[in-house]
Amino acid sequence: MWSFGRCGSTPARILIAMPTSFSASPLPASRTESDGSAVIRVLSYNIRSMRDDTDALARVITACAPDLVLVQEAPRFFRWRKKLARLAAASDLVMLSGGATAAGPALLCSLRATVERTEDVLLPLTPGEHRRGFATAVVRFGGARLGVLSCHLSLRNDERLEQSGMLLDRVAGLGTVHAVAGGDLNERPTGPAFRRLADALQDGWATRPWGGEHTWTFDGPDRRIDAVFATPGVEVLGCGVPLGLPGVSERDLRAATDHLPVLAALRVPAT
User: Fold this and answer.
1) Which of 45, 161, 174, 252 counts the highest number of beta carbons within 10 A?
2) Alpha carbon distance 257, 11 (integer Å)
3) How far apart are CA 95 and CA 78, in angstroms?
4) Cβ proximity of 122 and 131 under 8 Å
5) 57 and 261 Cβ atoms separated by less than 8 Å
6) Is residue 262 in some structural domain?
7) Beta strand extents in the chain (DSSP E only)
8) Cα separation of 12 and 9, whole Å?
9) For the chain, what is the domain count?
10) Is residue 163 part of a domain?
11) Is residue 61 part of a domain?
12) Which residues, other chains included, contact 199 with Cβ-Cβ below 8 Å and sequence gap of 6+?
Protein backbone atom coordinates (compact mmCIF):
# COMPACT_ATOMS: atom_id res chain seq x y z
CA MET A 1 0.00 0.00 0.00
CA TRP A 2 1.18 3.50 -0.85
CA SER A 3 2.16 5.37 2.30
CA PHE A 4 0.73 8.88 2.48
CA GLY A 5 1.16 9.78 6.12
CA ARG A 6 -0.86 12.80 7.21
CA CYS A 7 -1.83 15.39 4.65
CA GLY A 8 -3.04 17.95 7.17
CA SER A 9 -2.28 19.11 10.67
CA THR A 10 -5.87 19.05 11.95
CA PRO A 11 -7.14 15.54 12.71
CA ALA A 12 -10.80 14.67 12.39
CA ARG A 13 -12.47 14.55 15.81
CA ILE A 14 -14.73 11.55 15.88
CA LEU A 15 -16.66 9.86 18.64
CA ILE A 16 -18.00 6.49 17.55
CA ALA A 17 -20.37 4.32 19.54
CA MET A 18 -19.56 0.85 18.26
CA PRO A 19 -22.55 -1.52 18.07
CA THR A 20 -22.69 -4.55 20.30
CA SER A 21 -23.75 -6.68 17.32
CA PHE A 22 -22.70 -5.85 13.77
CA SER A 23 -25.38 -7.47 11.67
CA ALA A 24 -27.60 -10.50 11.56
CA SER A 25 -26.00 -11.51 8.26
CA PRO A 26 -22.87 -10.49 6.36
CA LEU A 27 -23.11 -8.10 3.43
CA PRO A 28 -23.03 -10.04 0.14
CA ALA A 29 -19.79 -10.03 -1.81
CA SER A 30 -19.59 -8.77 -5.39
CA ARG A 31 -20.36 -11.30 -8.09
CA THR A 32 -21.87 -11.69 -11.55
CA GLU A 33 -24.86 -14.01 -11.82
CA SER A 34 -25.49 -16.53 -14.59
CA ASP A 35 -28.38 -14.40 -15.90
CA GLY A 36 -26.05 -11.42 -16.41
CA SER A 37 -27.22 -9.51 -13.35
CA ALA A 38 -24.56 -8.26 -10.95
CA VAL A 39 -24.19 -7.91 -7.21
CA ILE A 40 -22.06 -4.85 -6.55
CA ARG A 41 -20.81 -2.98 -3.52
CA VAL A 42 -21.16 0.81 -3.53
CA LEU A 43 -19.41 2.99 -0.95
CA SER A 44 -20.27 6.66 -0.31
CA TYR A 45 -17.61 8.55 1.66
CA ASN A 46 -16.90 12.19 2.50
CA ILE A 47 -13.09 12.19 2.70
CA ARG A 48 -12.62 15.82 3.87
CA SER A 49 -10.13 16.69 1.10
CA MET A 50 -7.78 13.99 2.42
CA ARG A 51 -6.70 16.30 5.23
CA ASP A 52 -6.58 13.55 7.82
CA ASP A 53 -4.91 10.12 7.99
CA THR A 54 -4.92 8.94 4.39
CA ASP A 55 -3.41 5.56 5.24
CA ALA A 56 -6.38 4.92 7.54
CA LEU A 57 -8.71 6.18 4.81
CA ALA A 58 -7.27 3.73 2.28
CA ARG A 59 -7.53 0.85 4.76
CA VAL A 60 -11.22 1.56 5.38
CA ILE A 61 -12.00 1.75 1.67
CA THR A 62 -10.04 -1.43 0.89
CA ALA A 63 -11.73 -3.40 3.66
CA CYS A 64 -15.16 -2.47 2.27
CA ALA A 65 -14.19 -4.08 -1.08
CA PRO A 66 -16.27 -1.65 -3.17
CA ASP A 67 -16.88 -1.80 -6.90
CA LEU A 68 -17.77 1.90 -6.88
CA VAL A 69 -16.82 4.67 -4.47
CA LEU A 70 -18.91 7.85 -4.46
CA VAL A 71 -16.51 10.41 -3.01
CA GLN A 72 -17.36 13.79 -1.53
CA GLU A 73 -14.85 16.52 -0.71
CA ALA A 74 -12.18 15.09 -2.96
CA PRO A 75 -9.03 17.25 -3.23
CA ARG A 76 -9.69 20.27 -5.48
CA PHE A 77 -6.52 22.32 -5.48
CA PHE A 78 -2.77 21.83 -6.01
CA ARG A 79 -2.00 18.39 -7.52
CA TRP A 80 -5.52 17.19 -6.76
CA ARG A 81 -5.44 14.52 -9.48
CA LYS A 82 -2.24 13.01 -8.10
CA LYS A 83 -3.67 12.87 -4.57
CA LEU A 84 -6.90 11.22 -5.68
CA ALA A 85 -5.04 8.78 -7.95
CA ARG A 86 -2.78 7.76 -5.06
CA LEU A 87 -5.80 7.11 -2.85
CA ALA A 88 -7.39 5.02 -5.59
CA ALA A 89 -4.22 3.00 -6.11
CA ALA A 90 -3.79 2.44 -2.38
CA SER A 91 -7.37 1.12 -2.26
CA ASP A 92 -6.97 -1.20 -5.29
CA LEU A 93 -9.18 1.09 -7.38
CA VAL A 94 -8.85 3.55 -10.26
CA MET A 95 -10.13 7.08 -10.82
CA LEU A 96 -13.35 7.26 -12.82
CA SER A 97 -14.45 10.90 -12.82
CA GLY A 98 -14.86 14.08 -10.80
CA GLY A 99 -12.67 15.87 -8.31
CA ALA A 100 -11.96 19.54 -8.89
CA THR A 101 -13.79 19.41 -12.22
CA ALA A 102 -17.01 18.53 -10.35
CA ALA A 103 -16.33 20.91 -7.42
CA GLY A 104 -15.56 18.05 -5.02
CA PRO A 105 -17.60 14.93 -5.81
CA ALA A 106 -15.64 12.12 -7.49
CA LEU A 107 -16.01 8.50 -8.54
CA LEU A 108 -13.58 5.62 -8.10
CA CYS A 109 -14.14 2.11 -9.42
CA SER A 110 -12.65 -1.36 -9.47
CA LEU A 111 -11.29 -2.95 -12.61
CA ARG A 112 -14.44 -5.04 -12.64
CA ALA A 113 -16.30 -2.07 -14.14
CA THR A 114 -16.50 -1.44 -17.87
CA VAL A 115 -16.82 2.31 -18.37
CA GLU A 116 -19.10 3.65 -21.11
CA ARG A 117 -18.82 7.36 -20.37
CA THR A 118 -18.27 9.96 -17.66
CA GLU A 119 -19.41 13.55 -17.18
CA ASP A 120 -18.66 16.17 -14.54
CA VAL A 121 -21.47 18.65 -13.91
CA LEU A 122 -21.13 22.06 -12.26
CA LEU A 123 -24.31 23.40 -10.65
CA PRO A 124 -25.36 27.07 -10.65
CA LEU A 125 -23.24 29.14 -8.27
CA THR A 126 -24.97 31.04 -5.49
CA PRO A 127 -22.92 34.15 -4.58
CA GLY A 128 -21.14 33.67 -1.28
CA GLU A 129 -21.60 29.88 -1.29
CA HIS A 130 -19.34 27.00 -2.30
CA ARG A 131 -19.64 25.75 -5.86
CA ARG A 132 -21.38 22.40 -6.05
CA GLY A 133 -21.42 19.71 -8.71
CA PHE A 134 -22.08 16.09 -9.63
CA ALA A 135 -19.63 13.41 -10.74
CA THR A 136 -21.47 11.01 -13.05
CA ALA A 137 -20.76 7.93 -15.13
CA VAL A 138 -22.38 5.02 -16.94
CA VAL A 139 -20.72 1.66 -16.28
CA ARG A 140 -21.34 -2.04 -16.84
CA PHE A 141 -20.84 -5.02 -14.54
CA GLY A 142 -21.44 -8.18 -16.53
CA GLY A 143 -24.78 -7.68 -18.26
CA ALA A 144 -25.88 -4.96 -15.83
CA ARG A 145 -25.73 -1.35 -17.06
CA LEU A 146 -25.76 1.29 -14.35
CA GLY A 147 -25.82 5.08 -14.09
CA VAL A 148 -23.77 6.48 -11.20
CA LEU A 149 -23.83 9.89 -9.48
CA SER A 150 -21.92 11.33 -6.52
CA CYS A 151 -23.12 14.54 -4.86
CA HIS A 152 -22.47 16.92 -1.99
CA LEU A 153 -25.48 19.17 -1.46
CA SER A 154 -25.47 22.74 -0.16
CA LEU A 155 -25.57 23.88 3.46
CA ARG A 156 -28.36 26.31 2.54
CA ASN A 157 -31.88 24.90 2.84
CA ASP A 158 -33.32 26.51 -0.29
CA GLU A 159 -30.31 25.74 -2.46
CA ARG A 160 -30.14 22.16 -1.18
CA LEU A 161 -33.78 21.53 -2.09
CA GLU A 162 -33.21 22.93 -5.57
CA GLN A 163 -30.12 20.76 -6.01
CA SER A 164 -32.06 17.64 -5.02
CA GLY A 165 -34.36 18.26 -7.97
CA MET A 166 -31.34 18.76 -10.24
CA LEU A 167 -29.97 15.43 -8.97
CA LEU A 168 -33.15 13.60 -9.95
CA ASP A 169 -33.13 15.26 -13.36
CA ARG A 170 -29.50 14.26 -13.88
CA VAL A 171 -30.18 10.64 -12.85
CA ALA A 172 -33.06 10.50 -15.33
CA GLY A 173 -30.80 12.00 -18.00
CA LEU A 174 -28.14 9.32 -17.65
CA GLY A 175 -30.17 7.18 -20.05
CA THR A 176 -29.99 3.97 -18.02
CA VAL A 177 -32.77 1.78 -16.67
CA HIS A 178 -30.94 1.44 -13.37
CA ALA A 179 -28.89 3.97 -11.42
CA VAL A 180 -27.30 4.58 -8.05
CA ALA A 181 -26.74 7.99 -6.46
CA GLY A 182 -25.25 8.91 -3.15
CA GLY A 183 -23.34 11.39 -1.12
CA ASP A 184 -23.33 13.94 1.67
CA LEU A 185 -26.79 15.51 1.71
CA ASN A 186 -26.12 17.90 4.61
CA GLU A 187 -29.60 17.05 5.83
CA ARG A 188 -31.36 14.45 7.94
CA PRO A 189 -33.98 12.09 6.46
CA THR A 190 -36.79 14.34 7.73
CA GLY A 191 -35.56 17.30 5.64
CA PRO A 192 -37.31 18.30 2.39
CA ALA A 193 -34.35 17.60 0.07
CA PHE A 194 -33.73 14.15 1.59
CA ARG A 195 -37.47 13.38 1.43
CA ARG A 196 -37.62 14.41 -2.22
CA LEU A 197 -34.86 11.95 -3.07
CA ALA A 198 -36.32 9.17 -0.92
CA ASP A 199 -39.75 9.61 -2.52
CA ALA A 200 -38.33 9.10 -6.02
CA LEU A 201 -35.54 6.61 -5.24
CA GLN A 202 -34.90 3.80 -2.77
CA ASP A 203 -33.09 5.02 0.34
CA GLY A 204 -30.67 2.15 0.97
CA TRP A 205 -30.71 2.32 4.76
CA ALA A 206 -34.49 2.65 4.99
CA THR A 207 -35.01 -0.18 2.49
CA ARG A 208 -32.62 -2.78 3.93
CA PRO A 209 -30.76 -1.53 7.03
CA TRP A 210 -27.44 -3.17 7.80
CA GLY A 211 -24.53 -2.08 9.99
CA GLY A 212 -24.75 1.35 11.60
CA GLU A 213 -27.09 4.23 10.81
CA HIS A 214 -25.53 7.55 11.79
CA THR A 215 -22.83 9.07 9.58
CA TRP A 216 -21.94 12.51 10.92
CA THR A 217 -19.43 11.96 13.70
CA PHE A 218 -17.83 15.31 14.51
CA ASP A 219 -19.72 15.56 17.80
CA GLY A 220 -21.82 12.38 17.75
CA PRO A 221 -22.65 10.32 15.85
CA ASP A 222 -26.25 11.39 16.25
CA ARG A 223 -27.53 11.90 12.70
CA ARG A 224 -27.69 10.38 9.24
CA ILE A 225 -26.79 12.93 6.57
CA ASP A 226 -25.01 10.62 4.09
CA ALA A 227 -26.92 8.09 2.00
CA VAL A 228 -26.93 5.74 -0.97
CA PHE A 229 -30.04 5.71 -3.20
CA ALA A 230 -31.02 3.34 -6.00
CA THR A 231 -33.65 3.50 -8.69
CA PRO A 232 -36.64 1.13 -8.58
CA GLY A 233 -35.74 -2.28 -9.96
CA VAL A 234 -32.36 -2.39 -8.20
CA GLU A 235 -32.52 -4.77 -5.24
CA VAL A 236 -30.98 -3.38 -2.06
CA LEU A 237 -29.34 -6.29 -0.24
CA GLY A 238 -28.06 -4.23 2.67
CA CYS A 239 -26.92 -0.67 3.38
CA GLY A 240 -25.33 1.12 6.31
CA VAL A 241 -22.15 2.19 8.06
CA PRO A 242 -19.66 -0.72 8.07
CA LEU A 243 -18.99 -0.64 11.81
CA GLY A 244 -17.38 -3.91 12.85
CA LEU A 245 -16.75 -5.09 9.28
CA PRO A 246 -13.56 -7.20 9.24
CA GLY A 247 -10.65 -4.91 8.45
CA VAL A 248 -12.53 -1.74 9.42
CA SER A 249 -11.23 -0.66 12.82
CA GLU A 250 -12.70 1.99 15.09
CA ARG A 251 -9.29 3.62 15.19
CA ASP A 252 -9.14 3.96 11.39
CA LEU A 253 -12.69 5.31 11.23
CA ARG A 254 -11.76 7.96 13.80
CA ALA A 255 -8.58 8.91 11.97
CA ALA A 256 -9.70 8.84 8.32
CA THR A 257 -12.18 11.73 8.15
CA ASP A 258 -15.04 13.41 10.01
CA HIS A 259 -17.81 11.33 8.35
CA LEU A 260 -18.53 7.64 8.48
CA PRO A 261 -18.84 5.78 5.15
CA VAL A 262 -22.06 4.23 3.86
CA LEU A 263 -21.67 0.81 2.23
CA ALA A 264 -24.43 -0.77 0.14
CA ALA A 265 -24.74 -4.12 -1.60
CA LEU A 266 -27.03 -3.97 -4.63
CA ARG A 267 -28.28 -6.50 -7.15
CA VAL A 268 -28.55 -4.81 -10.56
CA PRO A 269 -30.58 -6.67 -13.20
CA ALA A 270 -29.14 -7.32 -16.62
CA THR A 271 -30.27 -4.85 -19.26
Assistant:
1) 45
2) 8
3) 17
4) yes
5) no
6) yes
7) 31-32, 38-46, 68-72, 94-98, 106-109, 114-122, 133-141, 144-152, 178-184, 202-203, 226-230, 235-240, 262-268
8) 10
9) 1
10) yes
11) yes
12) none
